[in-house]
Amino acid sequence: MSRKPLFAANWKMNKLPGEGAAFVSALTELVDRGVAADLMIASQAPMLVELKAAISASPLPCKLGAQNCHWLASGAHTGENSPELLAKIGVQSVIIGHSERRILYREPDSEVALRVRAALERGMDAILCIGETKEQFDSGKSKEVVLAQLKASLHEVPARTESELVIAYEPVWAIGTGLAATPEIVKEMHGAIRKELGALGYSTQTRILYGGSTTPENIPSFMALEDVDGALIGGTSLDPVKYAALIKNGLI
Ligand code: PGA
User: How high is the mean pLDDT of the chain?
Assistant: First the structure.
């Protein structure tokens, strides 16, 4: 069985009230409701309720996404979001371990693993992000670093879960730089991730996304690769016209 493509939008710390709903209605006009892909939009937490209403009113196969979650249901954790609350308000998918969280906010693999498990246990999909820095890439350590991150971030995660585990390979040097990885690099890394997932007992249906400066122009070169099952999209996903074009071109 082949894996259905997933084009997941990561809005990061962008967009203001009203803009989430406007985006979804514009996207609904641009993308065919029968599109052969899954979509997901992850907004900042305060916009989730607005976005949920807009997504529910749209015929598009789009999930509501959050950009992180804590592992505990409640407690004294100022600034964090409870997985319990996110699930209750209708979040269906959570991005976890994004390099911006790992680097700027020092989230270690051990916490990432707990966050992934917490999301999955509450019935939400978890999009686990992994990727090497420029320095690690330059010193030829990419594969070693990425596979170690994968293993450590899955440490708490059972191989069989009802909710979906998705992996996103995002080289840090390619994020927001306009300098996407080459298809050769992506092919090799996704192949290695696929192999490692198999060795760890995860399903062959686990989707592996590429992320890092994806555009409507470069997406076909990634989607042509066997182990690329979609993309985690930052900058390009902020504009409904560009996001729709990326989805369309990614399916050719
Ligand atoms: P980018 O971001 O598409 O803007 O490079 C990707 C990401 O950080 O998920």
Answer: 97
Question: Hey, which bits of 67-152 come out as E strands?
Answer: 93-96, 125-130
Distance in angstroms (rounded) separating the CA atoms of residues 29 and 103: 37
**Could you confirm whether 132 is annotated as catalytic?**
no
Q: How far is CA 88 from CA 73, 83, 104, 123, 128, in A?
A: 11, 8, 28, 10, 21
Residues of 191-226 as b/e, b for ≥16 C-beta within 10 angstroms? ebbbebbeeeebeeebbbbbbbbbbbebbeebbebe
Q: φ and ψ at 20, to 5 degrees?
A: -70, -50
Give the max Cα distance, the chain. 49
Query: Residue range 195-208: average pLDDT?
Result: 97
Closest by Cα among 109, 42, 38 to 81: 42
Catalytic residue among 100, 111, 132, 170: 170
Quick one: pLDDT at residue 114? 98
Angle at 186 between CA 185 and CA 189, to 5 degrees: 85
The string of pLDDT tens digits covering residues 44-65 is: 999 999 999 999 999 999 999 9
Q: How far is the CA of 133 from the centre of ligand 1 (A)?
A: 14
Q: Is the pLDDT of residue 1 over 80?
A: no
